[in-house]
Design brief:
Number of helices: 12
Helix content: 25-40%
Strand content: 15-25%
CATH topology of the largest domain: Alkaline Phosphatase, subunit A
Distance between the termini: 69 Å
Largest sheet: 9 strands, mixed
CATH superfamily of the largest domain: Alkaline Phosphatase, subunit A
Number of domains: 2
CATH class of the largest domain: Alpha Beta
Shape: globular
Amino acid sequence: MPWLSPRVLITPCMVVAFLFSVVIASPAASRPPNVVLILADDLGWSDLGCYGGDLVETPNIDRLASEGVRFTDCYSASPVCSPTRASILTGKHPARLHMTTWFEATLQSAGNQKLVPPVAIGNLPLEEKTIAAVLHDAGYVTALVGKWHLGDASHYPEGFGFDANIGGTHWGAPETYFFPYRGSNTWGDGFRYVPHLEFGNTNEYLSDRLTDEAMRVIDDAKAKPFFLYLAHHAPHTPVEAKPEYVERYAEKLKANPSLHHRNAKYAAMIQSLDDSVGRVLAKLKACGAEENTLVIFTSDNGGYIGRWDKQQVTDNYPLRSGKGSLYEGGIRVPLIVRCPGVTHAGKVCSAPVISTDLYSTIAAAANLKNTSADGTSLLPFLKNEKGSQAREELFFNFPHYYQTTGPVSAVRAGDWKLLEYYEDKHAELYNLNLDPSEKKDLSTTMPEKTEELKLLLHDWLKNVGAQSPASNPDYKRKKMN
């Protein structure tokens, strides 16, 4: 790789010292970069210190941002988890895949709603070639540690290019964050568990254990390049955290009653997530792999603003709404990328990017063919190349119901954003530069811009074969008291 200097191949790991000395003598045989993708679950855009979070302290993630590029306008391709995870692994938009809601929801029948959502795919099709499969074919050791949520047992990670699957199932959330990570009642009568995490210790915490397993992956890769997909469950519900961390943030809240973030347990969960990032970075450094590893940290959708244990989980302030919604709070997510020899330390990039771009970025970093249908490599932004152009539009489609929304599609074009709701076809128009909180709907005062963006959105929906909801003939309007 042209962006790798010879010194990044020097390692203190004695097992591979001789092999690396041979590689240094032969530039043509340069080892490809490792890739570490850390994906948080339901982490809000403003939950982190480096994104303006006012409660939780995230020194390790903040340090990663200071060493790499922090993207201010990154979006998840969907406001819920499974579709975004599919977009990351395939480089295809969920609307193109027809994977537009989370796995469990694809198994449920429509309720008493005005529209019937389309039948979405719950299992990632086996013919889809994931970035893991591309890297595996190129000689990488590939491992998922943590959440999968992309299909039943016949559609688990092993079928998509992963050598190892530690913890991945069809479930979207654990029964509990404490060992033995199994039981029932949290999500109903069904029994849940996180596999391959046996023989733990009392009070062992899930984020810590997943990090332990990630350390093993790095060790076991030895002289081979590796792709580590560390997909944390945190800070997804259930809201459970280490008592000592909860106490710390409870005291901080007492001393600062005006903070926007008010949930001590949720903050404590993110503290453990930050600990994990710190441990992974320290491991890469100790193994001599730091200077030859692309590290990506992001979230699968915006923060969940519903309630757990009678308390709101998080607040995406200054963004509007949260998980499930196509307002900024539901789809704008943190993205931090560190690529030694490429990224300019501490750079902040405001170009609009989206989760489908990660496939293209990883492929480009590994000097492999990019077959993404919807993604664009972020390497030009990481290199700070002059003339780097952001794509003109980003599109979204969520033809389902959620606590925060009805079926809706959206487009962002430059500073402009339009949402169009399926139930009554009404549109909303916002200028994100002047109004990032989406408080002032300009659709009635700017009808021409509204119509222009609607046409853009409709063309895209048609081009990708997006599904839309249908009228519900059995819908019964609730009687008003």
